[in-house]
Records
---
Amino acid sequence: MASTRIRILCKQTSFVVNFSKLLRRLVHQTASCDAKKLGGAGGKAVAPVAKKELEVEQDPQKLCRLLCGGNIFKEGSDPELKPDNEYPDWLWTMRLDRQAIPLSELDPETPQYWNRLKTLNMRRQKRLQSLKKF
């Protein structure tokens, strides 16, 4: 009785395993057929479109007159530059370097000052912790 029960369980297990293999094969074949329908060669998906790289403008006349690479539309030309007095004042006072603002240049009444101070103190504490031997 026990041996027949084991045989029945083994047959059921092998049936489940075979069914899962069959199901996996069907899903794989369906996916490859769909890829072929989409126009891929050999059942592979279509490659994405390559990025278009802009050429570096060498003409000094264009560089002084136009914002080269500023056209965001498919058609049209680059926008022309305006005189300096037509742009807002904050544009000329922007920081261009990517370094963090030194603490001495920040006003203590602003939240940026206190965030920077907190960051510097955390870095100092980590550096001191790394110097401890035990």
---
Amino acid sequence: MSLTQSLNEVVQSTKDLIETVKTTYSQHDVEIQKILAVAPELQRVFYVDAVNGSDENDGSENAPFRRLKKAADLVPRHGRGHIYLLSDYHMTEPVFAHDCHLNIFGNKDVFRKVTFEQYSHGTDGNDYRAFQGFRWVGSGYFNFCYLDMVLPVLDPQYNGLPTSNYASIVSCATSSHTGNQGVTFRYGDIRIPTAEEGTPAGHILGHYSPISVYLSNVTASGASLKERFSRNDRARSYTMNFNFDELP
């Protein structure tokens, strides 16, 4: 093979490589454009006002929803929802994170109080006590910020019933092996009933499998947070970036 032929082959190979690269970049650009087109739908922002809101609204700041569940259910799978509470909120139904990340925000100047309604539920012929709280399914994650979360005092009508995982502010709504799960409490207060007030209705956290937990700038009033933090205290049932002994 002559030098000219070899050079021609190198030139042609270079041209072929350039075309391949251009085609690859073009394909990547098409895929990126698809992602960019979808991305806005994966990031949803909603406002909830339990006093003046309406579920017929669009969930904007000037037209907030009334129910947290309404906003949470509109966050797509694998998406991230930012939900802002414009008033205190009483949980009368569970709020689910279905394979998504839910950020629930109060107000940094006036924390929003969140309270929880109690109920009993039956399974395997037995009744268990529970209260309406936040629950994840699959790879769910909750981030709570600027909230005062109040663990309820046990209602006398449910006294004597065993505590289920659903008697927790945050609980896993499915079995174990449901993916990455976690919860963050930031800039707020967790209120635990004192002995004088009555028996706490449940726990802060109810879960089946390993999860990530993070507390930052959170205070705890009432009884010991440590005693009411986790429904399951099995070894390695949770992973946290703080020592249990550091809890208030």
---
Amino acid sequence: MKRYLSIGVLIGLAVISLNGHADEKAKPNAWQGKTGEDVYNTVCFACHKEGVADAPKLGDKAAWADLIEEGQAVLTAHAWVGVRAMPAKGGQPDMPLEAFADAVAWMASNSGGDWKTPDDTLLAVIREEAIQRIGVQVTEMQEMQQELHKLTQEHLENRLQNMEQQLRTLTTATEKPAEKANKK
């Protein structure tokens, strides 16, 4: 019985998933047909025009030099998944990689680089680099989680020791008056 139930649940989830994907494909993508410059003017300018949170300003060749040196795939992938103060996908959860990558290429090309809109081959390399970057981020988050668990455990142990000490102090204070009363 349980076997049939789990198969039924899996089939149900698959149908829901397929329906969800069908709905996504039916929705028009707001980024479709936008150039890298369009994406910059829609989203990226908010930080890259004035250098908010140390974002390299568009056209600042010195600020972009080291980033451009990293290479188009690495820079695009790291920015895509979020790096330093920059949120993943520039804070636009619905932005496809193609539009994002085109915007990065446009900004780099207008800041000292010679980058072109990525073709399918470069997009595949960017995706692989993004996967690796996410793996690093997951490992870092797991290490932070372990550290937090350790700190929480230490904190709880310290609290428990303090409470035990307070209980001993209260018990000792309560016993002394009782002892004095018994001696009389």
---
Amino acid sequence: MSKPAEFYQRDREWHPPASSQDYKTSVARSPQNALISLEQTVSEITGPRFGHGDVTEMDRDLIHNYAKPGESAIGERIIVHGRVLDENARPVPNTLVEIWQANAGGRYRHKKDAYLAPIDPNFGGCGRTITDENGYYYFRTVKPGAYPWRNWVNNWRPAHIHVSVFGTAFAQRLITQLYFEGDPLIAKCPIVNTIPDQAARGQLIAALDMNASVPLDSIAYKFDIVLRGRRSTLFENRMEGN
């Protein structure tokens, strides 16, 4: 039996181009010259150092972690869960996973978000957790709403959650977006449509998971995160793979 390779060659057709005419802001912020490699410094390849006691059970519960005592966030309650895996489907334990999102009306708790949906006073929109020995993580939250954005005349972002995975060094932070199975806005999103491969787009869609749902409480969605390899999850801050 052959031993799995430690690293795989990146698939450059798997990730989208940095510039896309239909995704207007990518045109101005995409590189205009050839990329260059910079040698990493010690500060980039060491750390971070944090105690696991700094991350509590409440940090993964966005329904209550910003709410007043006795109150909770408004919206459709959901569970988002899955595993963080390497390129050979092995679990990645003790990894910091962070999320942030809009509220159920599609508005972020940010001073520059001027969308007309109201702010939920009991929803902060962010959470964090650490994967267990099997690479497993989960969050309780509310399903975010769609919202309009100034791309073309009538573009709407599908419901989505931003996901960050932090490695063992400051330079090892990967960021992606999670969408929800069955959302018709996914196929119409100019950002999603920059991804050339249908299978790659599919890896950003969390699957409905009724087995993990809580009756009369929360619907569950499963979202596994593959850190690298030929078929890694698409990360927006690492557009060309490994």
